[in-house]
């Protein structure tokens, strides 16, 4: 709840900040544009007044228009070529200083007309000036007091400030409303991920929802698999431990005779081996399950590795009266040698364990185009079709009684599947009940 409020506040603040910046920029730009347009309009009006006044016959005619000039808040000044003031409608020209240094007078003398905005030295009022050179060499200057302009600007500033405050307040309300509306689908996702409809989501959120749902399903599946794995491990460990404990208790109590003691010791040894094999397989699976585990890859001769495996499995095959054959050619793959040895051991061990007496196991290593094939084929009991998709699951056994008799842990093919996945290889199984099984790994 706190995180949601925090995110909502951040979004609100960002919306309001953007709105405030936009409003201020708009207001300042509008005021600047208004001033620019108004200033140009004032100078256009002054130019028009100057042209009208320049057509008067004499200074007397100009003096007669003083009342009209005052009504229009205009100041008219006539200056000769040397800068001496000949006439001024708002001041005594006899006491006025030389105007040749005034910017608008200088500019008019050079270019025919000139403008300036400044505080009047004579009247002390901020004034707009327009000067025009007449045909007789004199310069006519029209000035307009800017007090009315600044009064209007102050009024406009107050009006703009009020509008800015009103718009900002409206933006705050809209921001709050839009933020809440924006977060509604996200809040629904947080409270009911499975129940939310894709149609009610923003299109940008749909990939996230799909990913989160898939991860949620994977987490549940993994949790279920781990729970089942833990239960299976507990059950599998309990069986040999119970047998070891029972036989040891009989020997300890003295109830077992000499012949029974030897038989019980053999059972303890057999169950201990089964227990060690089971623990080793569990450790190996845990290592393969670790996503952060890195396995060193090297150049491995798959044919030579298969040859070594067959030599190592010779004793086990002899006990089961199963013949081992190796076919193919030397083939180099980039792989982890220990994992490849483990792969070969599990495939060959299964092929021997679930074979008939007098049967055979053929291991083939050869090239198929640009790929390398490893095939382990036996003439054993085979796997019924309904079980073929599940034999790579942990602790899954087609024939539980035979597996326990032969020392199988139910983890061999699960380890094979993990090793194949670690090497980005392809794994396929072909089997027919009563005729045998072939497992192919393509690197």
Could you explain the architecture of this structure?
This protein is of the alpha+beta class. The protein has four domains: 2-35 and 152-189; 54-145, PAS domain (Beta-Lactamase); 208-289, Helix Hairpins, CATH 1.10.287; 298-442, 2-Layer Sandwich (Heat Shock Protein 90). Helix content is 56%, strand content 17%. The strands form three sheets. A five-stranded antiparallel beta sheet has the order 2-1-5-4-3, with helices on both faces. Strand 3 (113-119) and strand 4 form a beta hairpin. It is rod-shaped, with a radius of gyration of 50 Å. The model has no long low-confidence stretch (mean pLDDT 80).
Outline:
By secondary structure, the protein is an alpha+beta fold.
List the helices and strands and how they pair.
Layout: H1 2-53, H2 59-64, H3 66-71, E1 74-79, E2 85-88, H4 103-111, E3 113-119, E4 126-133, E5 139-145, H5 147-191, H6 206-253, H7 258-289, E6 298-301, H8 302-312, H9 314-319, E7 323-328, E8 332-335, H10 337-353, E9 360-368, E10 371-378, H11 400-406, H12 412-422, E11 426-432, E12 436-442
Parallel strand pairs: 7-9
Antiparallel strand pairs: 1-2, 1-5, 3-4, 4-5, 6-8, 9-10, 10-12, 11-12
Helix pairs in contact: 1-5, 6-7, 7-12, 8-10, 10-12
| Number of discrete domains | 4
What is the count of DSSP helices, taking H or I runs of 4+ residues? 12
Unreliable parts: none
Q: How large is the radius of gyration? A: 50 Å
Structural class: alpha+beta
Number of strand elements: 12
The CATH class name of the largest domain reads Alpha Beta
What percentage of the residues does DSSP assign to strands (E)? 15-25%
Might you state the CATH topology name of the largest domain?
Heat Shock Protein 90
Range of helix content:
55-70%
């Amino acid at each position: 709840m706190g995180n949601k409020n925090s995110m909502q506040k951040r979004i609100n603040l960002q919306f309001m900040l953007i709105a405030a910046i936009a409003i201020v920029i708009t207001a300042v730009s509008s005021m600047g544009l208004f001033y620019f347009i108004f200033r140009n309009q004032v100078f256009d009006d002054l130019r028009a007044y100057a042209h009208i006044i320049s057509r008067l016959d004499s200074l007397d005619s100009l003096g007669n228009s003083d009342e009209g000039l005052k009504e229009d808040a205009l100041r008219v000044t006539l200056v000769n070529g040397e800068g001496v003031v000949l006439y001024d409608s708002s001041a005594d020209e006899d006491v006025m200083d030389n105007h040749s240094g005034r910017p608008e007078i200088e500019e008019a003398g050079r270019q025919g007309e000139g403008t300036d905005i400044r505080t009047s030295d004579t009247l002390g009022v901020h004034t707009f000036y327009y000067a025009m050179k007449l045909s007789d060499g004199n310069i006519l200057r029209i000035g307009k007091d800017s007090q009315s302009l600044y009064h209007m600007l102050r009024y406009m500033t107050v009006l703009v400030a009020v509008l800015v405050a009103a718009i900002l307040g409206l933006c705050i309300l809209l921001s709050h409303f839009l933020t809440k509306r924006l977060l509604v689908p996200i809040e629904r996702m947080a409270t009911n991920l499975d129940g939310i409809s894709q149609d009610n989501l923003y299109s940008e959120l749909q990939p996230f929802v799909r990913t989160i749902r898939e991860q949620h399903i994977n987490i549940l599946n993994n949790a279920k698999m781990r729970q089942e794995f833990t239960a299976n491990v507990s059950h599998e460990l309990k069986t040999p431990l119970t047998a070891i404990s029972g036989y040891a208790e009989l020997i300890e109590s003295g109830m077992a005779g000499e012949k029974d003691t030897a038989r019980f010791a053999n059972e303890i040894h057999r169950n201990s081996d089964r227990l060690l094999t089971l623990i080793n397989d569990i450790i190996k699976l845990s290592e393969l399950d670790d996503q952060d585990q890195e396995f060193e890859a090297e150049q491995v001769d798959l044919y030579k590795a298969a040859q070594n495996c067959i030599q190592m499995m010779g004793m086990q095959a002899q006990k089961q009266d199963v013949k081992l054959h190796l076919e193919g050619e030397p083939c180099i793959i980039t792989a982890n040698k220990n994992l490849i040895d483990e792969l070969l051991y599990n495939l060959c061990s299964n092929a021997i364990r679930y074979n008939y007496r007098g049967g055979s196991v053929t291991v083939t290593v050869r090239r198929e185009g640009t790929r390398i094939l490893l095939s382990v084929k036996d003439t054993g009991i085979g796997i019924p079709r309904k079980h073929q998709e599940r034999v790579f699951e942990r602790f899954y056994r087609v024939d539980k009684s035979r597996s326990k008799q032969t020392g199988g842990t139910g983890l061999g093919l699960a380890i094979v599947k993990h090793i194949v996945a670690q090497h980005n290889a392809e794994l396929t199984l072909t089997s027919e009940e009563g005729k045998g099984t072939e497992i192919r790994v393509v690197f």
